[in-house]
Amino acid sequence: MPTYLWEARSKVGELRSGSLSADSENLVIERLRQQGLVITKLRRKSLEINLPRIGSGVSLKDMVVFTRTFSTMIDAGLPIVQCLDMLATQSESERLRKVLMSVKHEVEAGKSLSDAMGSHPRVFDDLFRNLVAAGEAGGILDLIFRRLAIYMEKAAKLRRQVRGALVYPSAIVVVGMLVMILMMTKVLPTFEKMFKDLGAGSLPAPTRIVLSISHLVADNLLWLTGLTIVVGAVAVTAGRTPKGRYVIDSMLLKSPVIGPVLRKIAVARFTRTLGTLLSSGVPILDALDIVAKTAGNRVIARAILYAREQISQGKDIASPLLETAVFPPMVVQMIGVGEQTGSMDEMLQKIADFYEEEVDAAVAALTALLEPIILVFLGGAVGGMLIAMYLPIFEVAGNIK
Considering only 4-18, 255-269, 271-285, which range has the smallest mean pLDDT? Predict the structure, then answer.
């Protein structure tokens, strides 16, 4: 979807600017007019090379502290500029301190808080800025910042669960592979030399197979290492392209063990984000656009954008979500009920709470399942190599006897 850069004036003559993703210029013009803005400039953003994204330099903990403290200050009636000045002075993060001072100066110059935050997209993403804009429009900035803090804490919990589901088993596999390579390149050649010194003669078939694999690995270790690096680099590069990322995400969702867990995490993130946006007064089309960008999975994002397109044509939200076959039928039915009763934001939050509990149980079960399987596999491989090495020793001992 192309991105358009725009400049416009509000009803009171205030100059604003920003970017918007839409299928055509007409849709951009229509959405800005709905916000009461008169467009002065509009152009399509030129294609850019996607380089690796550098971190914002602000930790999630610092952002949560900032949002909660800002909410308390606004609720106490302090002016925004004074709040920003106090938070910038008290912040432990140097990066956040500089960003808040910059935002403060832009607000003093006449910009709205959301527009000033738009100058720092690496710290304040689309979700953050749109919620702040909705809070400014509705006069509920304190409530919005409380919701943002809760949302970020929930998002951090989901991120930890993903790491728990993937990092630990991956670490065990990597360590096990390193141990096996060490045995093939250092330990097994020592056994082979010992067999020759003992005059073992014809070796058993398992021993010959293991020694052949050992020779293959030891003689081609540099080539195998280089091939692994090349394959990894190609996979990472492909993962940065839209098509490659879509293929990888699709494979992950369809994988037999980790796929169901990732699907539950995606549903929890989708419902939590959409519920937070809708309860804050963000229009449904804008909310779906933001949710698609923060989905974390291209398959989920494509399904959300398809639903958004169908809704813009007059359909309800449940039917297109069901057509995508990405979201569980129960989730779609509950969203449909919430839409019919006018309480979709509350229904989405309930679904998110339910699925976050499901993710807790699924991650615990997955870890409990994968750990013994991986350990048995690695233990069997290492044990099999050792048994294959001891078979000739038993034969030599028998011959001596």
Answer: 4-18
